[in-house]
Amino acid sequence: MGLMYRFLGFMFLGFLLFCKAEGAIRHYDFVVKESNFTRLCSTKSMLTVNDSFPGPEIQVNKGDTVFVTIHNQGTYGITIHWHGVKMPRNPWSDGPEYITQCPIPARTYFTQEINFSTEEGTLWWHAHSDWSRATVHGAIIVYPANDSYPYPKPYGEQTIVLASWYKADVMEVYEEAVASGAEFNTSDAFTINGQPGALFDCSSGTTFRLPVKQGETYLLRIINAILNEEMFFGIAQHNLTVVGTDGFYTKPINADYIMITPGQTMDVLVTANQPASYYYMAASPFSNSEAAFDNATTTAILQYIGNQSAPSSIPLPTLPGTNDTTAASNFTTKFRSLASNDHPISVPKKITKHILMSVSVNLIFCPNASCSGTPDGDRLGASLNNQSFVLPTTDILELYTRNNFSQFTTDFPLEPPTNFNFTGDVNVTVYAEQGTKVIELEYGEVVELVYQGTNVGNAQNHPMHLHGFSFYLVGTGLGNFNNQTDPDNYNLIDPPEVNTIQLPKNGWVAIRFVADNPGVWFLHCHFERHTPWGMAVAIIVKNGGTNSTNMRPRPTYMPPCPSS
After folding, report:
1. What distance, in Å, lies between the first and last C-alpha atoms of the chain?
2. Which residues pair with 137 in a beta bridge?
3. What's the order of all strands across the beta sheet hosting 58-61?
4. Could you give the count of Cα atoms lying within 13 Å of 11 in the half-sphere of its Cβ?
């Protein structure tokens, strides 16, 4: 009997170890509904999850699986995307509307299965339909499976979510601009964890405060959920050390400030090593274009624990100016993967598919000058390789799995249709071609994609995000990409592994990835005004032909499409 009990105990222990290796199963309920919030001296109703802004935090260990049931109690359809989660073989739950699903109708619910794999650090979730993500977003925290960090474990941690605040109804702002073809109105403020901070009217008493213990180190998990502005962030009289971005570790970067673009996340260590007092943390915008932007500064308070009273004047951090391109570039080019034995990387070397993708702000022709977006009666637009992407009325994933090509084609050009001096004097049309053309890749292809900024329309930075993958940022530079000489300067040793990059104004960025995740995946600019203008494309990765390399089967229920 004793031998039998020992045997059963051994088997049970093995079962527990197997379960841990496979990851835990977790469940969340998200109730999407209108809630009242008061900011900037006025109250408005806005769409939220679980009555919170920002929304609830998802906490998992590396390799876990999460089931999130979205209860849509709002008045219109919505989708949710799990930004930076690669979702192996499971595009069905990725979330972008009309790419992998149709919106969840009002008064219905939909359960999404979120599959974590190699991600470790800070990611986030957000609505991926119209402009709902302005208020529908939250953090995803992926802890190491064995509670082992590549740096001393911090004493405490705090999520910092940067977001936009509109006094007006965000959907009205969106619908007005889409209807007219004009520029979108800018926000009225930025927020840190839902609060604008003491520099705004009616806001000083609600400023977010982070209590810290003198001498201890804290991990700040910073997310830029702002719609259309890149941001500088810093803490008065405190140094920052970046140790991760987009769910992967980096070599430590010591800095007075960070620069974070919409869609990005950063893990930042700060040590409370100053005299016990109050210190402002602040975020202010960076903009190098002619487009209007919200030139405001949001603040929160780093408050040392103790009996001290607030000083008569709380110091602010010294952040770069709104158009300080040098400061932005000096920070963004410092990133390197940790590339250690415990956190190895695998940079693709033998490229089988080259893509050169011009990124432009354009105009869209309106017959009979019927739009009011420009003085000539056209509408503002954007494009990749002069293709301005138009969403179909049934999601591409559903159509593709049915072998139905009625609403999209697979002939997206893999290089600009016209070769010109991209960053010089423009001698090509500013008008883009509209359509729903996608990129189709064979499973296992090794891809190098070079984003090329252009001087067409309003030249500016672009935060480019790819669903379904992390990728290696192997090179970046200013001017036109030279495929003969620029690859000689690639970093193939320890490039950062990310899911969102900053394409510099009139510059280029080269990324590499292996197309080993079958499905339909969205690639788009994370400036929220540029995606509806057409700065996007879908990428189809074909099945690999085996159970482990094919897409998972379609779930029994998917939200219905208006045209299905």
Report:
1. 62
2. 126
3. 58-61, 137-143, 121-127, 80-83
4. 6
What's residue 12's pLDDT?
A: 38
Q: Is 145 exposed, middle or buried (0-12, 13-18, 19+ CB in 10 A)?
A: middle
Q: What is the pTM of this model?
A: 0.95
Identity of the amino acid at 166: Y
b (16+ CB within 10 A) / e for 153-170: ebeebbbbbbbbbbeeeb
Which pLDDT tens digit goes with each residue over 60-95?
Answer: 999 999 999 999 999 999 999 999 999 999 999 999
Angle at 245 between CA 239 and CA 250, to 5 degrees: 75
Count CB-CB contacts under 10 A for residue 75: 12
Per-residue confidence band for 182, with pLDDT thresholds at 50, 70 and 90? very high
Q: pLDDT digit string (tens) for 275-287? A: 999 999 999 999 9
Helix (H) or strand (E) holding 180: helix 170-180
CB-count exposure of residue 425 (10 Å: 0-12, 13-18, 19+): exposed
For residues 79 and 28, give the distance between their C-alpha atoms in angstroms, rounded to a whole number: 16
The DSSP code sequence of 214-228 is: TT-EEEEEEEE--SS
20 pLDDT band, cuts 50/70/90, is very low
Total count of residues recorded for the chain: 564
Phi, psi of 171 (to 5 degrees): -65, -35
Identity of the residue numbered 308: Q
Q: Which pair of tokens denotes residue 271?
A: 């040590």
Per-residue pLDDT at 563? 62
Token output for 348: 């693709």
Cα distance between residue 473 and residue 499, in whole Å: 9
Alpha-carbon distance of 118 to 412, in angstroms, equals: 30
Cα(500)–Cα(466) distance, rounded to whole angstroms?
A: 7
Reply yes or no on whether the pLDDT at 6 is more than 60. Answer: no
Q: Side chain identity at 265, as an amino acid letter?
A: T
**Average pLDDT in the 395-408 region?**
98
Task: Name the helix (H) or strand (E) containing 470.
Answer: none
- For tokens 């017959």, the residue is 367
Give CA–CA dist 358/440, Å, rounded: 18
The burial class, CB within 10 Å (0-12 / 13-18 / 19+), for 15 is exposed
Give me the pLDDT at residue 11, please: 41
Beta bridge partners of 488: none
Contact of 80 with 128, CB cutoff 8 Å: yes
Cβ contact 241:288 at 8 Å: no
Do residues 134 and 170 make contact, with C-beta atoms less than 8 angstroms apart? yes
Q: Please say if the pLDDT value at position 8 is more than 50.
A: no
**Closest of 251, 246, 257, 190 to residue 221, by C-alpha:** 246
